[in-house]
Amino acid sequence: MERYLKEIEVSGLILVIIGIVCSMVWGTAFGMWPCAIGLLCWLLVFLYKAFHWKEYERENKQNIVIILIAIVFLFIQMLIKR
User: Fold this and answer.
1) What is the rounded CA–CA span in Å between residue 33 and residue 39?
2) Within its chain, how far is the Cα of 50 from the centroid?
3) Phi then psi for 40, rounded to 5 degrees?
4) Burial zone of 5 (CB within 10 Å; 0-12 exposed, 13-18 middle, 19+ buried)
5) For the packed helices 28-51 and 57-81, what is the interaxial angle rounded to 10 degrees?
6) How far apart (Å, rounded) are the C-alpha atoms in residues 79 and 73?
7) DSSP alpha helices (H): ranges in 1-82?
8) In total, how many domains does the chain have?
9) Beta carbons of 15 and 34 less than 8 angstroms apart
10) Range of the domain at 18
């Protein structure tokens, strides 16, 4: 599994980008599936690294910061749309 972590992570990111573009072009229902699969791939890598904290401590801290920033941006976007 360790050998394929980067490939799974990059594949998940590419699928999320494809899903976002597809939802912009063809609608939300079509773009939801690649985005969901990409997020599941990223979650798989995130959980593996979380269970092996000592080995991936630096990457885990970066992922936590990225997730917190994304949550803040989503929260701000929710407040602006009201």
Assistant:
1) 10
2) 15
3) -65, -40
4) middle
5) 150
6) 10
7) 5-25, 28-51, 57-81
8) 1
9) yes
10) 2-81
Mean pLDDT across 6-16: 92
Mean pLDDT of the chain: 86
Residue type, 8: I
Percent of the chain with pLDDT over 90: 33
Q: How many CB atoms lie within 10 A of CB 31?
A: 19
Secondary structure of residue 82 in the 3-state scheme:
coil
Structure tokens at 46: 């995130």
Q: Predicted confidence band at 51 (pLDDT cuts at 50, 70, 90)?
A: very high
CA dist., res. 19 & res. 40, Å (int):
13
Give CA–CA dist 52/59, Å, rounded: 11
The Cα 36–Cα 14 span in angstroms is: 12
Instruction: Report which of 70, 64, 67, 39 is spatially closest to residue 49, judged by C-alpha positions.
Output: 64
